[in-house]
Amino acid sequence: MRRKMEQLREELELMEQLRDIIESRLKVVLPEDLGTSLMDGVVLCHLANHIRPRSVGSIHVPSPAVPKLSMAKCRRNVENFLDACKKIGVPQLQAFCGCC
């Protein structure tokens, strides 16, 4: 039980560090639920382009007419982000978790 609580506390700290990094680099304020704000891949693609300009050539973004992206466009954004991570030199496992 104690180990589980410690692991949860560590995960929360890492999530806050991730939030701080993204917000400071992109000069944005993310919603409370970080996972939801990253789910469509838009913020991730912008972060990749901030680290290495033009590493993501095309980003699907919501518009006032269509405020929610389709799952296909979200998937494409995330795939573009992962491809950019490879170009930048991020090891594949590290792109999914900070533990490796």
Automatic annotation (TrEMBL):
It comes from Ilyodon furcidens. Residues 8-100 form the Calponin-homology (CH) domain. This is Leucine-rich repeat and calponin y domain-containing protein 2. InterPro entries: CH_dom, CH_dom_sf. It comes from the Eukaryota. Pfam families: CH (PF00307).
